Amino acid sequence: MKASPESRPNLLQGVAENWRPPRYRRLSSSGQRFRAAFLRFLDLQSGTIWRDLSRILPAEKGKILDVGCGLRPYRSLIATDATYLGIDISGAQKHFGFQSPDTIYYAGDRWPVESGTIDCVLCVETLEHVEDSRGFVAEISRALRPGGRVIITVPFCARWHFVPHDYWRFTPSGFAALFANSGLGDLKVYARGNQLTVACYKVMAVVFSLLSKANRRLDRWLPRALLGILSLPVFLPALLLANLSLCVPGTVDCLGYTVLARKE
Ligand SMILES: C[S@@+](CC[C@H](N)C(=O)[O-])C[C@H]1O[C@@H](n2cnc3c(N)ncnc32)[C@H](O)[C@@H]1O
Predict the structure, then answer these.
(1) How far is the CA of 65 from the centre of ligand 1 (A)?
(2) Whose CA is nearest to atom 8 of ligand 1?
(3) 50 CB under 6 A from ligand 1?
(4) What's this model's pTM, rounded to 2 decimal places?
(5) What is the largest CA-CA distance in the chain?
(6) pLDDT truncated to tens, each residue of the chain (264 aa)?
(7) Is the residue at 13 inside a domain?
(8) Same domain, 189 and 58
(9) Nearest residue by C-alpha to atom 25 in ligand 1
(10) Given 3-state DSSP classes, what are the helix, strand and coil percentages for the chain, each rounded to the nearest 5?
């Protein structure tokens, strides 16, 4: 490609987020739970996060603080004898479309919790949306009791989302640098998915974006949609292969990371 970068759109001008999350729903019937499980099968990011969290969260006891909780999709994984507290920023609805009952909304950088009172901080797909990540890690450390655990997930291979409120992608060494001197130790970073998962995920994303009509005029959308329909035969194998690829260990070229650490 010989064209200068300036011939391409400047992404800081005029890029808008089309996708909005669904409204909050309490999953009470088995039909609703089945639908949620099916959506996790389709959405590899949330599916792999669910897999990881379902293996670690039920064992957490005491006070569990879900920071940037959104619609609280992982609440049901928490043991019934643990205390769940969901907090989010006051801009959650305006900037992310998230509003859920029983969530404490707060403004500013300081979390509405007493120091050293939390047994487990849960932070799912939120850190990449926080401008001041060091300040955020300092709040994790302040909130946790000694020995308390933090569980974080972040995307690695994901599009720029909730534009413009998506600031960072982290690497394992990025986490090591971010957590250094934070009072949090025993840092572990695990990959979710591998190169094959990512390749299939991107194929599926192309088909989705061809079919997605958001903010597009019908005459512009129809040819893309036709291409999307023609691409459907690759979608299903990609979906199955992606889910099968999760049987082998995660690698550095992955969907995202699950990060564990403890307050020293
Ligand atoms: C991608 S959503 C994830 C929501 C939820 N954790 C989930 O897994 O569905 C990102 C969340 O981060 C929250 N957020 C953004 N900036 C934040 C900040 N500085 N502190 C705490 N939460 C923040 C948003 O309000 C939003 O709920």
Answers:
(1) 13
(2) 124
(3) no
(4) 0.93
(5) 62
(6) 678 998 988 999 877 666 666 665 777 788 888 888 888 999 999 999 999 999 999 999 999 999 999 999 999 999 999 999 999 999 999 999 999 999 999 998 899 999 999 999 999 999 999 999 999 999 999 999 999 999 999 999 999 999 999 999 999 999 999 999 999 999 999 999 999 999 999 999 999 888 887 656 777 788 888 888 998 899 999 999 999 999 999 999 999 999 999 999
(7) no
(8) yes
(9) 92
(10) 40, 20, 40
